[in-house]
Each structure stands twice: as structure tokens, then as C-alpha cells.
Q: What sequence folds into this?
């Protein structure tokens, strides 16, 4: 079996080793490029949100490279994300690359309960035992937790010493990709903490990054926003990662309760997607004392638009600047940088006024 | 007590029910005026530019009230069978609360309509019996037609596939309905169908968990082999429609039935719509001439 899935930032490495442990050959397009986006835009309906287009382009390129089994996440069906796979499968079967068209399997994954996932679906797809699935799942959790730590430390390192952070990032990414055993992962975790550790400093500008999960995690989608902010000397705080999401799906994410109660003042009921989490995280960051909040989401994303209205209100109540950025396929990096620079300038000035 | 009901979004389906309900409670009901340009512009100014037009209009209506004490704007979370309303509809009472001049009452509607209305009635009048009777009096206005409409063979028939809050809005759909009626078409909408057809779970409809989208899709499937052409009207930025519309267009294309996708936003002019509809009519006529 030659399996593929849409690229998901650094978390791709964890997912890749999960599939490998289950005995599949993993085929991934090397990088997301402009071509990926162009293919996606050409094939998809006009008004759909950007993650659909990027992941569709991603699948197309994977099929070109010879993949025959595609995995796609699927949400709870309040938001459009829960419906991606219906249309994507249809489009790929009709207009996919000629090499493979019509002869691939397409599995939407996360609609199952954890029990179904471990004991029914995965063993059936990969022809293995539940025992092996559980082992692969634990390794996936360990690795994604490692990647979460790595990203968190890296964000601070970037703000202090950007060039050094870039160098270390490349080295450690290779090491993370190679780590397959549990002991290796634990060892790497310690080493990353030792080398990337930076003392707490008060003079760094702190910005909380919240928003839609695909945009938070995939650097191609958010135009490498974390890196650019790091280059400007801003310490980015972000809490979205694959590890947390998996814990949430396994109902083990205690922090979500906190977010839920924080957000309740503004949103009385969850509008689906991740609006509650976005809002809760933003309020949590504000309580911890950040200088500003950046909110990113795809153009016409329904839940995040509601969250954005609430964030406007939060901004007024707590007197914290909020920058809401929506992305579509025409968003240019230059324009984005200009807006980010202006925002950083604003929070700098605001801070100097009070100190 | 003076209660304001915005004449937008859910008013177009539940409006009559609410009016009768509040009248029987002995509460004075104020309706906002029919949508005009000033209301629309006020709405556009006060909410993010990315949400769809019906929501913008609703915000304009909420801000339009002058002398009410409370505004009644229920929150539809899900209806029968856990069919959800769209995320924006769930969130819009919160958005309205941020910009409105008056306090907003938004009882949550989850599955049944009776309990939230009954409790709200008690809250207003402190009288459970009165609330119960008001609900029973208003109940007939919730009914859907019991029989599907007839399809005469000689007439030209067109299906307008769109939400009730688009079609009944003067600014959006009424223009289109009027246009087709003037040209001698029989117009069919999803509101003409009984609820058993709209909510059935066969085929692809099983996968659609948005209640109004499932209704649209089921109506489309029911009309598919009975009508000559379809016009699908949706507002720019409507998330569910952008997806389900695509699926419907594919099915219509397979059967070679004319299918027009008409996108509407606050900048759409009347002349522009008419031009597109006329071009569509020419296309239908040419296809029939063949």
C-alpha cells in the first residue's frame, strides 16, 4: 500500500511515522509549492475555503507520484471541513491525474470514535491487529508531543537569535524524522530542551497567535507567519498542535474546559469549527499578558468569522490590539508583511507608552 | 412590554408564528420595516465584511429599532434529528448582542420549539397557562404544506432553489420570482414541499448535517425530473451553499438540465440580475428549440 495524506506543517513527520509503523509505504510530495495551489484552485469550486484547495492540490500531486491510498481528516459536521472528502473524492476520481485516476482508495478518518478507529477501521484498512494500531498510536502521540515542544521552544529562540534558530531547526527536523523508537524520542526531547532553552525575558514583544487549525500549523498556508514574526523579534505564543488535537479527540484535553468557560462570556454556544477554542486561547493569552493577538483564518470561514466578531469585543474590553487576517489564494506575502510590520510597530509604541 | 422582532432571516419562516404567539401573550410586538437601503448599509458597516448578506441585513434590522424594551432573536442550534443550523446562524445572536442598542433575548432552540417558547412566555408574563395557550394558538402557523404541488404538463416550470430568507427578502429573491412569473413560468420553491420530503435521509442527503442545506438538496432531488430548469440563488460568502451548490450543479449537468448559479451580495444591482436571468432564459429557449 502506498499511502498519502495532506501535508500538515511539521506534524507531517509524526503522521508519516504513524503510517509507516502500520506497515504502509508513505508517499508525500516534497513541499507545497505554487503549483500545488494552482492545481487546487483550478479543480475546486470557486467559493470554497482555502484549506480545501491546498489539500486537493496536495492529493493531486501525491497521485501523480503513485500513491494509491489517500487519508483525509473529517470534522464534526457543523463546519464545511466535515464535507471536504465527499467533494474531493468526486473531483479526484473525475479529473485526477491520468496515471492513477479511478483506482485509488480514499478514507476519511476522524469521523470514527476512538474505539472504532482502533479496533475496527484501522486494522481493516492495514490488515493488522489492534495491538499494533495502539502501539503506533502511542508513538504518534509521543512524536507529536515532541514536535509540539520543539515548536514552542523554537518560537522563543527565533525571537532572541533568528539565525541560530534557523540553523538548529534544520538539524533537529532531520533528527526528529529519524527518531522511530520510544526511547529515541524521549532522549531527543531532553536534548531539544537543553539546546533550545532560552531564559525568560521581559523585554521581548509577545504576540498570541490564534485561529483555524490548518492555518496555525501549515506554514505554506499562513505564509510562514511565525518565522516572519520571529525575524521581527516577536515571541509568538501559540497553542494549536496535532498533539493537543489528538488529546481532544481522545477526550483527554483538560485545558479545553478552561477555554470553554473563558469563551462562554462572549459566545453562548459553540458555532462549530474551532471558534470556542480560538476565543478561549485568545482570552487565556490576554490573561497571561501578551501585547497583541493575531487571528488567522481562511476567507469566508464561518465559525472563525463569528469568533472574529467576538474578538473585536474582547479587544475593546481588555484594551489589547487584535489583528484579524483572512487568507485566500490571492494573498501576497508582501502585503502580509506590511500589515505585520505595522501591527508590531503599534504594539511596540503601546508598550513604550506604559513603561 | 414591547418586544422587537427583526424582519430578517428566521422571520421569513417563523414570523407569523411569533407574531401570533406574542399577541396571545398580550405583549406588544414591533416589527422592523421592510429591508431598505439604509438598513442594509447600517448592517454592512457593523459586521465583518466576510459574512453573508442575510446576516448583514439581520444586523441592520437589529440596529434599526427605536422604542422597544427587548429584542427577540432565538438561537437555532439544531432542529430534528440533530440537524444543525449553519455556524453563522448559531453565532449571530452573539454578534447582534455586541452591536445592538437594546438587550437581546435569545432562547436556545435545540430540537423542540415548544420548551424555549413556553419558558420565554413564562418569563415575560409570569403565567404558565397563558404561555401554554399562546403557544397552542400559534402552533398552526408552523405547519408545512401536506401535499407536494401539481406539475401541469403544458406550462413552463422553473425551480428556484434557495433559502426562505433569500427568496422572501425584497432585496434578494423576490425580484427573481417576479421576473420568472412575468415571463410566464410556474415557480417552485422548497417551501411548497411537505416536511417528509424535505427531511428524508435517502442517498447523499444522509451525509448533510445542515438542516436547511438538507432541505435544499432534497427539494432539488424531488424536482429534478419534474421541472425544466433550475435557478440556484445564494449569497456571496455562504459556506454551506458553496459546497452543496457544487454537488447539485454536478447532478444537473449529468442530466443536461439548465442550472444557473446566481451569486448575490450587497453590491448586486437589479439590472445586473435581470441581464443574467434574460441570458439564462435565452439558453433555455434555445435548448427547447433544438
A:
Amino acid at each position: 500500500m502506498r499511502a498519502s495524506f495532506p501535508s500538515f506543517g511539521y506534524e507531517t513527520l509524526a503522521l508519516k511515522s504513524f503510517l509507516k509503523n502500520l506497515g504502509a509505504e508513505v508517499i508525500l510530495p516534497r513541499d507545497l509549492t505554487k503549483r500545488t495551489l494552482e492545481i487546487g484552485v483550478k479543480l475546486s469550486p470557486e467559493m470554497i475555503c482555502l484549506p480545501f484547495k491546498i489539500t486537493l492540490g496536495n492529493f493531486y500531486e501525491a497521485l501523480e507520484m503513485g500513491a494509491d491510498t489517500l487519508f483525509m481528516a473529517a470534522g464534526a459536521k457543523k463546519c464545511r471541513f466535515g464535507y471536504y472528502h465527499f467533494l474531493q473524492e468526486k473531483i479526484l476520481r473525475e479529473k485526477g491525474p491520468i496515471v492513477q485516476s479511478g483506482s485509488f482508495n480514499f478514507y476519511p478518518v476522524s469521523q470514527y470514535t476512538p474505539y472504532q478507529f482502533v479496533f475496527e477501521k484501522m486494522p481493516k484498512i492495514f490488515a493488522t491487529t489492534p495491538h499494533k494500531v495502539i502501539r503506533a498510536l502511542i508513538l504518534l502521540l509521543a512524536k507529536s508531543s515532541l514536535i509540539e515542544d520543539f515548536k514552542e521552544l523554537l518560537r522563543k529562540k527565533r525571537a532572541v537569535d533568528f539565525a541560530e534558530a534557523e540553523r538548529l531547526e534544520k538539524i533537529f527536523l532531520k533528527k526528529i524524522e529519524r527518531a522511530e523508537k520510544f526511547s529515541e524520542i524521549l532522549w531527543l526531547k531532553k536534548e531539544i530542551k537543553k539546546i533550545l532553552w532560552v531564559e525568560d525575558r521581559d523585554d521581548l514583544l509577545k504576540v498570541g497567535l490564534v485561529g483555524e487549525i490548518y492555518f496555525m500549523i501549515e506554514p505554506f498556508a499562513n505564509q510562514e507567519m511565525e518565522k516572519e514574526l520571529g525575524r521581527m523579534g516577536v515571541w509568538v505564543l501559540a497553542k494549536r498542535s496535532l498533539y493537543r488535537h489528538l488529546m481532544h479527540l481522545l477526550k483527554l484535553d483538560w485545558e479545553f474546559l478552561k477555554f470553554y468557560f473563558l469563551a462562554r462570556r462572549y459566545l453562548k454556544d459553540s458555532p462549530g469549527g474551532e471558534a470556542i477554542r480560538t476565543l478561549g486561547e485568545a482570552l487565556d493569552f490576554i490573561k497571561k499578558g501578551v501585547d497583541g493577538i493575531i487571528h488567522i483564518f481562511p476567507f469566508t470561514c464561518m465559525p472563525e468569522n463569528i469568533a472574529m466578531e467576538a474578538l473585536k469585543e474582547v479587544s475593546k474590553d481588555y484594551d489589547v490590539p487584535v489583528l484579524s487576517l483572512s487568507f485566500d489564494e490571492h494573498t501576497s506575502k508582501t502585503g502580509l508583511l506590511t500589515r505585520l510590520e505595522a501591527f508590531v510597530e503599534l504594539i511596540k509604541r503601546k508598550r513604550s507608552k506604559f513603561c | 412590554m414591547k418586544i422587537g422582532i427583526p424582519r430578517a432571516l428566521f422571520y421569513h419562516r417563523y414570523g407569523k408564528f411569533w407574531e401570533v404567539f406574542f399577541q396571545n401573550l398580550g405583549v406588544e410586538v414591533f416589527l422592523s420595516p421592510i429591508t431598505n437601503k439604509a438598513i442594509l448599509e447600517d448592517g454592512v458597516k457593523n459586521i465583518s465584511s466576510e459574512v453573508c448578506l442575510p446576516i448583514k441585513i439581520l444586523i441592520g434590522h437589529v440596529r434599526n429599532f427605536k422604542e422597544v424594551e427587548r429584542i427577540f432573536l432565538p438561537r437555532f442550534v439544531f432542529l430534528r434529528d440533530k440537524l444543525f443550523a449553519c455556524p453563522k446562524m448559531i453565532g449571530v445572536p452573539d454578534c447582534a448582542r455586541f452591536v445592538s442598542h437594546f438587550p437581546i433575548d435569545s432562547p436556545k432552540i435545540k430540537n423542540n420549539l415548544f420548551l424555549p417558547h413556553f419558558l420565554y412566555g413564562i418569563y415575560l408574563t409570569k403565567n404558565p397557562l397563558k404561555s401554554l395557550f399562546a403557544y397552542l394558538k400559534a402552533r398552526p402557523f408552523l405547519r408545512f404544506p401536506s401535499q407536494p404541488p401539481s406539475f401541469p404538463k403544458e406550462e413552463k416550470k422553473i425551480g428556484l432553489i434557495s433559502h426562505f430568507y433569500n427568496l422572501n427578502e425584497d432585496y434578494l429573491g423576490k425580484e427573481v420570482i417576479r421576473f420568472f412569473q412575468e415571463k410566464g413560468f410556474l415557480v417552485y420553491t422548497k417551501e411548497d414541499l411537505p416536511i417528509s420530503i424535505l427531511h428524508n435521509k435517502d442517498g447523499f442527503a444522509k451525509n448533510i448535517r445542515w438542516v436547511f442545506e438538507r432541505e435544499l438538496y432534497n427539494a432539488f432531488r424531488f424536482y429534478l425530473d419534474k421541472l425544466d430548469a433550475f435557478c440556484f440563488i445564494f449569497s456571496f460568502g455562504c459556506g454551506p451553499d458553496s459546497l452543496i451548490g457544487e454537488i447539485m450543479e454536478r447532478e444537473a449537468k449529468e442530466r443536461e438540465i439548465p442550472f444557473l448559479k446566481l451569486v448575490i451580495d450587497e453590491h448586486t444591482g437589479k439590472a445586473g440580475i435581470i441581464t443574467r436571468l434574460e441570458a439564462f432564459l435565452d439558453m433555455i429557449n434555445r435548448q427547447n428549440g433544438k
